[in-house]
Amino acid sequence: MNSIATENYRYNLPEELIAKYPLAGRDQSRLLLCKSGTIEEDSFRNLANHLESNDMLMFNDSKVVRARLIMRKETGALIEILCLEPYYPISFEKNFASVKPVRWRCLIGNLRRWKSGRLATTIEEGGRTVRLEADKMEREGDEWIVEFSWDDKTLSFSEILERAGKVPIPPYLNRDDEPLDADRYQTVYCKSEGSVAAPTAGLHFTPAVIESLARKGLLSDTITLHVGAGTFRPIKSPEVRDHEMHTEHFFVSAENIKSLLTGRVIAVGTTTMRAVESIYWAGVSIIEGRMNHISGPSVGQWEPYRHNRVIDKERALEAVGEYIETTNSGVMSAKTSLMIVPGYRFRVAEGLITNFHLPGSTLMLLVAALAGERWRDIYDYAIERRFRFLSYGDSSLIIP
Q1: Alpha-carbon Rg for the chain in angstroms
Q2: Cα 108 to the chain's mean position, in Å?
Q3: Which homologous superfamily is 6-64+183-399 in?
Q4: pLDDT per residue as tens digits for the range 55-76
Q5: Cβ atoms of residues 6 and 235 within 8 Å
Q6: What separation in angstroms does the CA of 375 have from each of 50, 122, 276?
Q7: Where are the chain's structural domains?
Q8: Can you tell me whether residue 220 is helix, strand or coil?
Q9: Bridge-partner residues for 146, per DSSP?
């Protein structure tokens, strides 16, 4: 891994350009276009005008869960628990469906006030009161394993979160969640519960925009990558190579493989980009016999940068398709901590639709990996013309 200074990917983001709230209409956002060496802008609702028929748009259909729980100690102290991913049952589907106690990997706010004992909160449900309790089990780095139990076995854990939890809007918005966030911090096509942060590039899409893309002959498909809180984790080290990338779960179907072998792939969002590129590397591990058949494929943070062999996209993706067919699973479950930084060679995606990201973040590095040094021109243009930044901000289409 070559030396990359984090400082080289920072820029001055004026506070007033951070979009604290979404626009009245999803597709009213502005669209910065970086194509064929030029930078210009249009309205997002005109996205179809800037893509080609038979382009394949890949979306992340993960759904944000109400993962923030505010619990109270008997002393009255408030503790915030952010659920990151299931620990037991480890399957998202089984965990959400469970009516028995479940365990999650969590981040805990105001941890110093929770030295021992159970936390509790109550939910009003159909004229009765349901008690939800949390018990801190063990520590794993910055995270804790927390067990949740409740006294109404007619409710699944998914239903408990829906009633007791808060929408985990990004910390940089510096506000509590509000009723509008329940709708606007989800994409219109979300369906697979599991994210604690929205795949925000998709927030601009409306049924009308999607219909306009189809009318032009564009193709589309959805993949699932559950976005973790690590997406907000800043790079604190001076050198990028010293940053530990978070791990996220993604799921690949046989239909996804067919889609990725059809047309020019445009990733809708950095999470989709990481997912489709990780599929390639999962295929490489299958071809080379390095995959763990018990836990499934797991793509390491720096794996691409240590790999010298050239395996073409078709062969790698077909290997994943054959694996899915052989296991009769229909879907391959995998994990990725892939960190895409300048110097990375993209294997699957040829374009990206994305918002404007925090200075010096892993998302900023991904954009720079795709756009090259033009990332500075893109961000200078956006700042000079007062584009709206971050999760609820404007959008961009980058095709090198």
Answers
A1: 21
A2: 20
A3: QueA-like (3.40.1780.10)
A4: 999 999 999 999 999 998 888 8
A5: yes
A6: 19, 48, 22
A7: 6-64+183-399, 68-166
A8: strand
A9: 104, 136
